[in-house]
Amino acid sequence: EKDKGTVAGIDEWGKRKLAYEIKKESDGVYTVITYTATPQTLNEIERVLSITDEVLRFGTKRLKS
Asked: What confidence tens digit (pLDDT) does each residue in 2-59 have?
């Protein structure tokens, strides 16, 4: 939020079985975070997620405005 971004919502789906193992893990905690951000902020978010050991996989989707 300090980089002109806002969090619109956090939807925690909880622990679920993965379709296939990722990094020898068969379960994962799913969370959907809806936010607005500048392109530079998005790049930083993706960089941090990619180097965080607890994050097995993430995806970024652009919503229609």
From this structure: 777 889 999 999 999 999 999 999 999 999 999 999 989 999 999 999 999 999 999 9
Angstrom distances, CA of residue 30 to CA of 18, 53, 59: 10, 15, 11
- CB neighbour list of residue 3: distance below 8 Å, 6 or more residues apart: 37, 38, 40, 41, 44
| Residue 28, token pair as written in the block | 């994962």
Nearest to 58 by CA among 16, 27, 28: 28
Q: Which of 12, 4, 13, 10 is nearest to 42 (CA)?
A: 4
